[in-house]
TrEMBL record:
GO molecular function, one term: transferase activity
Organism taxonomic ancestry: Archaea, Methanobacteriati, Thermoplasmatota, Thermoplasmata, Thermoplasmatales
InterPro entries the record matches: Aldolase_TIM, Class-I_DAHP_synthase, DAHP1/KDSA, DAHP_syn_2
Entry keyword Lipoprotein: no
Entry keyword annotation includes Transferase: yes
Swiss-Prot/TrEMBL keywords: Transferase
GO terms of biological process kind: aromatic amino acid family biosynthetic process
Name this polypeptide is given: Probable gene for 32.4kD protein (CcmA, required for carboxysome formation)
NCBIfam families to which the protein is assigned, alphabetical: DAHP_synth_Bsub, PRK08673.1, PRK12595.1
């Protein structure tokens, strides 16, 4: 028997290959994940900030701008999973320190990526842990996060099916941590008109299969700043509860993902449209 308790503590998993899943709607219709008082799964939550925390002044500046634009959370990479070992690897624990300062300055919770359980000691003051696409099937990391209490933003592996993505969430849930938000960031296919392929059908599928809140990342999915708005709105139309958007105060000179980061002024417009769309969809016509 699998039991799902209201306080998100799970016990006694005997799911098996074909058994019930803790993420499934059989257990509950909808979950809300609380991130330091912010309720993900109610309305539309927006996390915004740079791909990488580059220095103290830039993250403080961007944090103020994204707050003014209407964001609820600050994102920023400190431990960066880069394709090339010669690319900027992030400021590591210094980057987390600057993110904490940004939270103190703005009052907004912070989300940042963890790559390895060994680094967990640096994430004490972080509100939400991100698991990136490249680590989405790092099962030791997922099992480790299942033993913690902190909320997790779990991206899909770029080579995974939507069902496999849900299964990665099960690793965390079955360890006892029910605070999981799934984040869709597209997959790699034959199409190269966008950086990755954003199948909104995967968001629709995830919404139909799981009670967990669903986030979408239109920035990595598109890889182009001029596509971020449409990708964001398409994700909300498909049912996303949250958006994670990369924002930089000087995108052309960003140390990572320069082409997809938008400016704060564009974030404001996207948030306004996305919230209006979410409201429209939540009302009976
Ligand atoms: C990120 O959000 O910083 C990131 C690296 O994204 P992804 O893991 O989706 O590539
Ligand atoms: Mn990035």
């Amino acid at each position: 028997m699998i039991k799902l308790y209201d306080n998100y503590v799970f016990i006694s998993q005997e799911g098996g290959e074909s058994g019930e899943r803790l993420y499934s709607k059989k257990f509950r219709e909808k979950s809300v994940v609380d991130v330091s008082g912010l309720r993900i799964g109610e309305g539309l939550v927006v996390a915004a900030g740079p791909c990488s925390v580059e220095n103290e002044a830039m993250i403080l500046d961007i944090a103020r701008s994204v707050k003014a634009a209407g964001a609820d959370m600050i994102r920023g990479g400190a431990f960066k999973p880069r394709t090339s070992p010669y690319s900027f690897q992030g400021l590591a624990e210094k980057g987390i320190e600057y993110l904490v300062e940004a939270r103190e300055e703005t009052g907004l919770p912070i989300v940042t990526e963890i790559m390895n359980p060994e680094y967990y000691r640096y994430f004490d003051r972080v509100d939400m842990l991100q698991v990136g696409s490249r680590n989405a099937q790092n099962f030791d990391l997922l099992r480790f996060l299942g033993k913690q209490k902190k909320p997790v933003l779990l991206k899909n592996g770029m080579g995974n099916t939507a069902r496999e993505w849900l299964e990665t969430a099960e690793y965390i849930l079955s360890g006892g941590n029910g605070n999981v938000v799934l984040c869709y960031r597209g997959v790699r296919g034959i199409e190269n008109s966008t950086r990755f392929t954003m199948n909104v059908g995967s968001i629709i599928y995830a919404k139909s299969e799981t009670h967990l809140p669903i986030c979408a990342d239109p920035s990595h999915a598109s890889g182009r700043r001029d596509f971020v708005e449409s990708m964001a709105l398409a994700s909300v139309a498909a049912g996303a509860d949250m958006l994670e958007i990369e924002v930089h105060n000087d995108p052309d000179n960003a140390l990572s993902d320069s082409e997809q980061q938008i400016r704060p002024v564009d974030l404001k417009r996207i948030i306004e449209k996305a919230r209006a769309l979410k409201d429209l969809l939540s009302h009976e016509i």
